């Protein structure tokens, strides 16, 4: 299932990033070379990380700096 629609990150990819050492949503984004966009996926990522026995996000989402420039995922996309 897609966890992050903005960056097309699936639950399997979140688990793979965690296996690679990601311990928070910010590190999952970094693992894939992306940035948080709308933030709706963070709670789901935290839930998935809790299922794996990790502490999840290590800092509040509001602490992250907003992306400098947003690149549309596909032609005509507004996000």
Question: What report would you give on this structure?
Answer:
- With 79 residues, this protein is mainly alpha-helical.
- It is built from three helices and two strands; from the N terminus they run ββααα.
- Strands 1-2 form a two-stranded antiparallel ribbon.
- The protein is globular and about 35 Å long.
- The two termini are 20 Å apart.
First-last Cα distance: 20 Å
Structural class: mainly alpha
Beta fraction: 5-15%
Spans where pLDDT lies below 50 across 5 or more residues: 54-68
Overall number of strands: 2
Shape: globular
Radius of gyration: 12 Å
The oligomerization state is single chain
Tell me the number of helical segments per DSSP (H or I, 4 or more residues long).
3
What is the percent of helical residues?
Answer: 25-40%
What topology, given as strand order, has the largest sheet?
A: 1-2
Helix/strand order, N-terminal first: EEHHH
Can you summarize the main beta sheet?
2 strands, antiparallel
Mean pLDDT: 77
């Amino acid at each position: 299932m897609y966890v992050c629609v903005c960056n097309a990150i699936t639950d399997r990819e979140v688990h793979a990033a965690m296996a690679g050492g990601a311990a928070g949503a910010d590190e999952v984004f970094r693992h894939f070379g992306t940035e948080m966009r709308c933030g709706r996926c963070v709670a789901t990522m935290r839930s998935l990380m809790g299922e794996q026995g990790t502490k999840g996000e290590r800092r509040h989402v509001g602490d992250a700096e907003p992306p400098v420039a947003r690149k549309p995922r596909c032609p005509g996309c507004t996000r």
